[in-house]
Amino acid sequence: MITEVAFIVYPVTDIVRSRRFYEDVFELRPTHEALCGTWVEYDIGATTFAIGVHPDWKPSTSGATLALEVDNFDATVAQLKSSGVVFSVEPFETPVCRMAIVSDPDGSRIILHKRKAH
Questions:
Q1: Mean pLDDT for each 10-residue chunk of the chain (118 residues)?
Q2: Which end of the chain is more exposed for a tag (fewer CB within 10 A), N or C?
């Protein structure tokens, strides 16, 4: 039946502003652009994350949340803070991971995530 997640997309209102955020702040590199500059994909591991502008799609501060696994949690948090990214939830620890939450320019949530070694 289902074999994998094909892609995840966040609706955005301003593709240029959103690209600047994802490419400059998170250092994501586009792997595909389509639909006259209103759709950009970023391959992250085995999954594709996309941003797109469409009149029927509305960004939401209470919708789905993207969780990005980072290689160095403390360094990533420090880098984002030095870039002026505001944290809606400061770093915290659970029994299995460390997390913090930021938002993109349209308010969509992004979890910074680092699994603990077992």
A1: 92 97 96 92 96 93 93 96 95 97 96 93
A2: N
Domains of the chain: 8-115 (3.10.180.10)
Q: For the chain, give the secondary structure using H, E and C.
A: CCCCCCCEEEECCCHHHHHHHHHHHCCCCCCEEECCCCEEEEEECCEEEEEECCCCCCCCCCCCCEEEECCCHHHHHHHHHHCCCCEEEEEEECCCEEEEEEECCCCCEEEEEEECCC
Q: What integer pLDDT is reported at residue 36 of this predicted model?
A: 86
Q: Which residue carries 């959103």 as its tokens?
A: 18
Residue with tokens 């997390």: 99
66-69 β-sheet, strand order: 66-69, 109-115, 97-103, 87-93
